[in-house]
Amino acid sequence: MKRKYEVVVIGGGIIGCSIAYYLAKEKVEVAVLDSGSIGAKTTSAAAGMLGAHSECNENSSAFFPFARESQKKYFELKDELYALSGVDIGYREGGILKLAFSEEDIHALNHLLVRPTVEWLNESEIRKMEPGLSPDVLGAAYIKDDVNVIPTRTCESFAKSAQTLGTQFFEYSHVYGIEKQDGNYIVQTANGDIEARHVVVATGVFSKALFKNLGITEELTPVKGESIIVHYEKPVLTHTLFHDSCYIVPRNNGKLIIGATMVEDDWSDTVSLQGVNFLIEKANTMLPAASAFKIAGFKVGLRPGTFDGHPFIGRHPEEERVLIASGHYRNGILLAPETGQMICDFILDKEIKSEWVEAFRVDRRQYMRV
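Above: the chain sequence. Below: its structure as tokens.
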């Protein structure tokens, strides 16, 4: 292992790998350290929805534009990354149908329907698109641009592309401390110390120890998400179905993902019967044919939640060459490209939209109005 780099990224999930890729494109010397294997934790359990619209349930002045820009990047990234890595990210078009089962559901969709990229479909129109839907569905908001990818392949594609461009990856390299020394930073790992000009913490929900080491008082809260991987003998779904934070996602690999539970402050990595029963019931509510699905496996991930639901993306409040990229909650896959670009721009001192800098800064809590 080389002992000095321009940038050390701590965390080899989708966020860390995206950051490495965007830096490598700028010919920055980067090392990525992960305590396990690349993309094996929360990234591997994600559904892969690029839900810029469907995941934005509030009129945030910054979150939706940021998510939308990140979503758009994937249209070119799917080919760009494949050319460098040979890994197909599984980009699947079709979009999301955000279902309404009641007048209350329809009312809750109004904030989406004002956007020109969202279309209301009545009961007749929606059944032409998905004949197998539950007879209780009254209609849906159709979001054509909210496509999906396969998270593990996407992370692998980012990592291999960055590696092709010169980034070095070190798996099973647990980082237990960061110290400032002679103007640079010493990243202390189980395999020895590494010196870096810049350090990026992208360790998701597992950032607590490093945050404390760096004097950051904010904490990330785990929100456990369980999902079921299923397959069906013949194609049964063309679009992603979404209702009340649950979904059925058809993938290009012939599988479907039913997800996801939201269990707050749970650090366990096991699937519960309660969670499975909840997901099966929810799937049957949306798509009666789900009762015939064959279970291929289960996934569990710990989403990193923040106090306001938005990620921390930016400089350390007191150390400008220490950067944080954590707390992406349900949207790590969606926000990975724009997060990678933003961290890269911070390091290279490029211009960044001021509203994004303010919205995602690590110390934003103290500037919020009470």
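The chain has eleven helices and 17 strands.
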